[in-house]
Please model this.
Amino acid sequence: MRRGYYGYRRRSILPRILTIVLVVLIGSAGYFAWKHFFPGGNMKPSKEETRKVQEEDLRAIQIVSSNDIASSDHWILVDKSNFMLYLYQGEERAGAYPIALGAVSGDKKFPGDNRTPVGTFSVESIEDSSYWVYDFNDGNGPIEGAYGPWFIRLKTPWEGIGIHGTHDPVSIGTMCTAGCLRVTNEDLLELVDRIQVGGLVHIQE
Model:
């Protein structure tokens, strides 16, 4: 340290400069690694993905106007073609969640056909399903937590159709359900916090 004008000894600024340079170098190296080595780190949405988003948002505007949805209302748009559930508030997208769908493609025709229905429905009830069990007939017996913490029951021509969580998050993004829409438990908690009974749910192919 050097002696200052008033007799105290001033610290050298060299260590501070070296620290700043070191932080910048580490940050740059980390950014480079993220962009070039992590999946998707250096990718921009494709034209097809951008077009899909634009089409979904346009569809959302049409649904809002035709169903008299207020700008403060939360509602759900499900696109089966890309395994996604979108949460909207009025015309504004408020969230996007990957889902699992019915094991059989196409619109639902009759009970037990393992298809996810297509159409405009509403939330009939939001039920505590944390204690529910389900036997998948895979030899493992009844599974606790198979539906996650909540079951968002939809008012449809068929009983038992809803949005729920899962004990098996790896199944998200596949066709594996009996017709329900399956999300991760974390995503389900977000939806339940914002969706109300009577809220609109539109499901499209």
About this structure: Residues 31-42 have pLDDT under 50 and may be disordered. The longest strand covers residues 119-128. The helical segments are 14-37, 47-67, 185-194. DSSP finds three helices and 14 strands in the chain.
